[in-house]
Design brief:
By secondary structure, the chain is of the alpha/beta class. Helices cover about 35% and strands about 30% of the residues. It has one domain: Formyl transferase, N-terminal domain (Rossmann fold), CATH 3.40.50.170. Strands 3-2-1-4-5-6-7 form a seven-stranded mixed sheet, sandwiched between helices. Helix 1 packs across helix 5. The radius of gyration is 15 Å and the shape is globular.
Amino acid sequence: MVKAAAVVSGGGAELQSLIDGLFFGEIPGFSLAALVSAEGGGEAAQRVAGLGVGVYTVDASIFPNSATFTRALTAKLQDIDADIAILVTVRPEPGEELYRAYSGRCVCLRLSRSGGELRATALLADADGSEARRFGRVSVEPLPGESEASLRRRLVENGAGELLTGAVKDFMRDFH
């Protein structure tokens, strides 16, 4: 059984599809052992309540810079003894130390903007954090006067969560 830890920023809406897939046994040989929140707050933790998933916080806002946040996050994932890391829209983006520790074993869902549109890209990160393999991408164009929260909700509705779940399923088929 592959033991995964998911790291999220925000409420973890993009993670819900993966949680549903786990609940219905759609990802053979995979277990979500831990959820690590990179922000204070409990909405993401509520999503995994009752699943026997350990919940931890490595709040990025308490660290003086990205390097110390990365060290703390990497140490927490290693303490959990996670086989793979799943980074779900994590801010700030962790540094290379985490990607080296989980080289070839880090599935990411990253948000980006291009020409106004908001994109979610699912990928397998290389040892330097770059894209080793792309699993897919979804995007949405902002509506006039639309808030960032509304745009993020529409991105999830447009398939960002399913994209993450598909990426984990594809990764697991190839994982040895």
